Sequence to fold (465 residues):
Amino acid sequence: MLIGLTSDDTISAIATSIGEGGIGIVRVSGSKALVIADKLFVSKAGKKLTDVLSHKVLYGDIIDPDSGEKVDEVLLLIMRAPRSYTCEDIIEVHCHGGPVPLQRVLALTMKAGARLAEPGEFTKRAFLNGRLDLAQAEAVIDIIRAKTDTSLKAAIGNLSGQLSEQVKDLRYTILQMIAQLEAAIDFPEEDIEEAAANDVAKLIQEADLQLSALLATAQTGRILREGLATVIIGKPNVGKSSLLNALLREKRAIVTDIPGTTRDIIEEYVNIRGVPLKIIDTAGIRETADVVEKMGVERARELVGQADLILVLLDSSAPLSSEDKAVLALLSGKKAIVLINKSDLPGQLESEEVEKYTDDRLVLRISVELGQGLAELEQVIVDMVYSGQVCQGEAAFVSNVRQADALEQARGRLTEALATIEAGMPTDCIVVDLRAAWEKLGEITGDTVGEDIIDQIFTQFCIGK
Fold:
């Protein structure tokens, strides 16, 4: 762990969202936090901060020390080091939640000796002081940005150390391999190098299975964190906006019988049984002379290339048209579900005819108007996200590209170590690959990560967290 890299500065920031609310919080952390609070806060009961135990709340006023003006009536929470979020002295001023009192209190804390915190600096200090590892620190922002209960559960699991513990167990196993091989190198007269290499080969295979299991959660973890980018496409007036409204369970998009109603892109988050869908309703894809509609069609084509999942709508009450075939042609190499809508109307489109153009993709018959088939569609999407590889109740998820990349590289170095053993190469060559794998896994928890990566991660946080 990178201990001792925190600044001696005392930092201050507004820790709640800007805007009107019942309560807003100004947070101050550092060695001067209590000194600063003592300059600004006057207890109604006449208590001195030096006499107050940690994790106690005082009622009083924030006073401008220069003018003697009362700025706000507040609650002051004291958390003494190391029993705080940052492991430093922290005071939190619970003000009235308007932007003016919050900004006034923040300005007074800085005038009294604090500086404005950088984005994510409170959590960065928690990491650098050993309270959180890097995977847990990343889970903090995942909790803040969670879009569904399932997203929140996965993030809380990582904050609790579920992912970190698995990574640490893997690192310990690799360290044991290294120790076993180095012992064999140190005692060549015992002639145990070959036996040690064989034992390590078995351990590498077991570790590879564990890494594979963790990597299997990466796609699901990313979706739970960011949302499944889902694009609804089809020719005009096929029911795309109606499907969006049905999944949202509210009338978000305008629905009319006039083809080409949707010209711009409509984007919303939808909670599908705990899976967040970043769902996009696009303009109907067709040839058109209308300049605005044409721009919408081009944008729809672009989004198809960027999507994780495409929902293609066809009209059951009409034969397959050239426009439908043009839409289906966009699916090459993409994950898609084909939906034959308006199945409540007299049918003119058979599933068998559609399947000729879908490359064995799933074809479902639905009626958005009557709500038929939507429950089945939702279940298909959930099953697709979890892929049968991880269960919804599993706590440890690889939640971002950085973690997945480190796991992939660690797995690659283990594969190289195994190949080195099979090639009968010297034991110290095996150790080099194993140590590289051990260091890569350490990047996930922050034990072997560079300061530039740390800075990059915490700049993604908001100021005040």
About this structure: The chain has three domains: 11-133, 146-217+397-445, 225-386. The longest strand covers residues 70-79. The chain is about 45% helix and 15% strand.
